Amino acid sequence: MCIRSRSGDQRVCAQLSLKNEFAVYTYPEAPAVIRSRHSRRSCSALLLSACAILLLCSCSHSVSHSEPTLVSIAVTPPNPSIAKGLTQSFTATGTYSDGSMQNITGFVTWTSETSGVATITGAGVATAAGVGSSKIQAALGSVNGFTMLTVTPAALVSIAVTPPNPTIANGTMQQFTATGTYTDGSMANITTSANWTSLTPGVATISNTAGTQGLATSVMNGSTMIQATLGAVQGNTTLNVTTLALEVLVVSPQNPAIADAGAMQTFTATGYFNDGSTQNLTATATWTSSAPSVATVSSAGVATSQTLGASVPTGFSSIQAVVGAIKGVSILSVTNHTTNTSGFPGVFTQHNDISRTGQNTTETTLTLSNVASTTTFGKKFSQGVDGFIYAQPLYVPNVAIGGSTHNVVYVATEGDSVYAFDADSNAGANANPLWHASLIDTAHGAAAGATTVNVRANLDESCTDLIPQVGITSTPVIDPSTNTMYVEATSEENSQFIHRLHAIDITTGAEKAPGPVSVTATVPGTGDGGSTVSLDGLHHLNRPGLLLLNGTIYLAYASHCDDTPYHGWLFSYNAGTFTQTGLEITTPNGGLGGYWMSGAGVAGDSNANIFIASGNGDFDTTHVPATELGDTILKLFYNGTSTLSLEDYFTPYDQSNLDGGDVDLGSGGVLLLPDQPGAVTHELVEAGKEGTIYLLNRDQMTAGNLHYCQTSCNGKDPQITQELQDAVGGLWSMPAYFNSAIYIAGSGDSLKEFKLTNGLLGTSPSATSSPQFPFPGATPAVSANGSTNGIVWAIDSSKYGLPTSNGPAVLHAFRADTLVELWNSTQAAASRDTAGDAVKFAVPTVANGKVYIGTQTELDVYGTLP
Question: ω before 345 within 30° of 0 (cis)?
């Protein structure tokens, strides 16, 4: 063994044999290094051992010479360049005065001059943090070396092509997206910069043209690999082309409103095919706007509002997507940002919108202060009509009638009449209706001598639900982009009882093509004792408000006074042709299960799903899905065939008790909530005569598709999002929504507010009104300016005309935050604000600073007073 040690300027070397080992010790110019054939040991330990052996053996030999010193450090690789996000390992090599070299990477101190460009570890590994250059230095004692590290922008590592492995119908297109992942972990949409290739262009081609990059067009059935390439990086997926039939095209969102002068609204067209698949056909569709002066629409489905004239508060356009012979449509409202600063488009359907929220959050005239006093708020005028007003009044601004422009309120009556009144005044030329149309005259398709229906005389002399006549009961729906009102009217003609769907020109009251059409149906079923079931014109009543959704009209039926035989019927009609496109019946092999919901409208969402609740009737506890659907909340979809497809449903665990006790679930309307935070985004609220509030996930109404709980229910429905039993009086009405709360007024109960937090209702009311609402309760409506000046309006219609009770309706106004009453129509002296006699289930309409309510003989209008 040989040991080299230093003492001053002298070196002593001893060579001796110890387990065949060789040790070297140098100090202090470089770190100690001990080399052994078998192991590495600490310098000091081996040195001491060696010295001990040296003394024992008394064999020493001294040599004197200079120790080599560290002269320089080389940092390698020299001047490297890497992409942001990558790492670079550096090596430090020391050169000594005797010409020897040694790897000293682990013993130097490493620094990066610009840490924002690169950082470096003690082991010499640099990480590129930002684009630029940084000096990388290695230092040991007074000696150092360096190199320059250049960091370039992050480099593309991989490409993901989406959607993955789609299947499309021959004759349609598929838009692909390329997403690049980079060395720094970032991701970016590189669809427009990638080069697109279809490896089998005979199956599908794909575009590299500006504006349509990544858009594949099918050519024939088969499969092709779709590639996106950028530089040396490539991503791919497989496109399958097959023979599929497009059945439905849905344009979403449905019925949005935007400001004028350049605001944009992006629409999507979703295709539904006969195999149950869906496809985004936005790029495939041909887009058109019915009113380019109001809004244009691009080939990508992006609508841009135009500037409206100074005197035009609102404009409307039908935004239509077409693929082949299949169409979808949405109605776009454009409000003038200068003359209509509130952004209020109008009230075109029952409870204000297709979700049936009942809220108007663009009301700038009515405030908490001016409604709270009889000196500043009260009845302004009335207009007489020829029958009970069960339908909610509708409101359209800026309608050209008879050479003048009016804000118009439309009223439909049980006298089979529709009236157009000036919405702001009954003075002078506005003292009379702007027009009045009878839907039982020959000009509107009825036979000569047609009359309204007298249910007591023709069906049930004890019936008091609708007296003395039945004509138009459900709330119509208006398409303001075509100036068309869709309305259902019933009549007696030559001893036959007829239901007709009409298309009325809102500027004249005249019938428009393609109306009218008689509503009829016959389907297989044993419910009426035979092999078929038909819509009986006398026994059935069109009660829920009509729904216009994606170019389709939906109307639903229940009974008169529960006189059998009857069923729940839901029909769909093409708004452009009046072709009956689909139907659904609740109890084809049973009975009852009518759709009435106290007049609440059939609800729909922007994906063209339909939601409705049935009344008491037979329910099928054996089959899943059930074939008999009494006391059920249903989700349906028009699938392009003659059937309204049952997509999902929920039936309470105590359905048999509800049915046996005439405790309808479907006495209350369905409210679709705006998107909610929390675990469930899309929800609905419904309550019936039992007073239980049901909160359901609209996307999957019951957990595990347990549509109906039969065992281990423990007196509740554990498969739904939330259930508040006995929360309110029985519902012959529906809730309203505003500012993360619902407002609900059950029969014999107060108006109650239930707050929503993370998509769940408070288990008890957050506010309760002092006044209560006797039977049938009330359907509230809400006015507000954004989230401020919230006012809840409700009508006490308890004196609705039973033989023992007949009297005026009472309109109430409450603060939305506390439900403290601000005003009601009984407070003014000398009965100044008294309304006409009450109509059961009446709903107030709040529009442009006024409140409109229907009564037995007149339309009453309330607003701010001079």
Answer: no
**What number of helices (H) and strands (E) belong to the chain?**
4, 72
Burial class (CB in 10 A: 0-12, 13-18, 19+), 225: middle
> pTM of the predicted model, to two decimals?
0.81
Other beta carbons less than 10 A from residue 462's beta carbon: 7
- Taking the CB of residue 674, how many other CB atoms lie within 10 A of it? 13
Contact criterion met (CB below 8 Å) for 854 and 393: yes
In sequence order, which residues have a C-beta less than 8 Å from that of residue 112 and are 6 or more positions away? 118, 119, 120, 126, 134, 135, 136, 137, 149
Token pair 């005569």 is found at 689
pLDDT tens digits for range 93-128: 999 999 999 999 999 999 999 999 999 999 999 999
CA distance 89 to 77: 8
DSSP string for 810-834: EEEEEETTT--EEEETT-SGGGTTP
Q: Are 257 and 264 in contact (CB under 8 A)?
A: no
- Looking at residue 319, its pLDDT comes to 98
Place of tokens 């939906």: 554
For residue 63, is pLDDT > 90?
no
Q: What residues contact residue 218 under an 8 Å CB cut-off, 6+ apart?
A: 168, 169, 170, 171, 172, 173, 174, 203, 204, 241
Residue type present at position 361: T
Please give the helix or strand (H or E) that residue 48 lies within, else none.
helix 43-57
Identify whether the C-beta of residue 91 lies closer than 8 Å to the C-beta of residue 103.
Answer: yes
Average pLDDT over all residues of the chain: 92
Give, rounded to a whole angstrom, the gap between the first and last alpha carbons of the chain.
116
Collapse the DSSP code of 442 into the 3-class scheme (helix H, G, I; strand E, B; otherwise coil) and give the result. helix
User: Residue 29 corresponds to which amino acid?
Assistant: E
Structural domains of the chain sorted by starting position, each given as residue range(s) with its CATH number in brackets: 2-63 (no CATH), 70-152 (2.60.40.1080), 156-242 (2.60.40.1080), 246-345 (2.60.40.10), 368-864 (2.140.10.10)
Report cis status (omega within 30 of 0) of the bond before 28: yes
- Residue 765's nearest CA partner among 789, 794, 735 is 735
